[in-house]
Write a structure and sequence with these properties.
Largest sheet: none
Order of helices and strands: HHHHHH
Structural class: mainly alpha
Shape: globular
Length: 144
C-alpha cells in the first residue's frame, strides 16, 4: 500500500488525487496564513472542511474589488460587515484595515456611513419609494 495515495501501486484512482490535492492546498493555505498573520482564521478553518468551498471563497475574495485599493476594500468590508451584524467580520476587517494604514477616524467614518445607509434603507423599504435618483435623472451619460 502506498502511504501517499492510499492505494496499491498501479491501482491509482483519480478520487485519491483530488483528496491529496485538497489536503496539499489546505496545508499550503495554512502555511501562508501562518507566515502572513501567524494564524489561520477560524472562518478559513471552517471553510477548509470542504476544499472546494474554501477554494471558491478564496477565489471570490481575491477577485472581488481587485480594482480597488486595499484600504478602500477593507473600509467597504467593515461597513458591510457592520450592516450585516457580523461582529467577527467587523473585528477582522478592522485589524486588516489598520494593517493597511487606515486610521481609526476612517474606520469610524465607514461605520457612520453604514449606519446612515442602514437607517435610510429601512425607511425607504418601509414606505416603498420609487427609484427617482438615477444617473439619467441627474443628467449623466450612462454607458450601455
Amino acid at each position: 500500500m502506498d502511504a501517499h495515495t492510499g492505494t496499491t501501486r498501479g491501482n491509482f484512482h483519480p478520487k485519491n488525487a483530488l483528496r491529496m490535492l485538497k489536503t496539499a492546498f489546505w496545508g499550503c493555505w495554512r502555511a501562508i496564513c501562518r507566515v502572513v498573520a501567524n494564524m489561520v482564521p477560524e472562518t478559513y478553518q471552517a471553510m477548509g472542511r470542504n476544499g472546494a468551498f474554501l477554494d471558491a471563497a478564496l477565489n471570490l475574495s481575491q477577485a472581488a474589488g481587485n480594482n480597488l485599493e486595499a484600504k478602500t476594500k477593507e473600509l467597504i468590508a467593515i461597513a458591510v460587515s457592520a450592516a450585516n451584524g457580523c461582529d467577527y467580520c467587523v473585528v477582522a476587517h478592522r485589524a486588516l484595515a489598520l494593517k493597511q494604514g487606515v486610521t481609526e477616524e476612517e474606520i469610524s467614518g465607514a461605520l457612520e456611513v453604514a449606519a446612515m445607509m442602514s437607517a435610510f434603507n429601512t425607511f425607504n423599504k418601509a414606505i416603498g419609494l420609487e427609484n427617482d435618483v438615477t444617473p439619467e435623472a441627474l443628467g449623466l451619460a450612462v454607458e450601455a
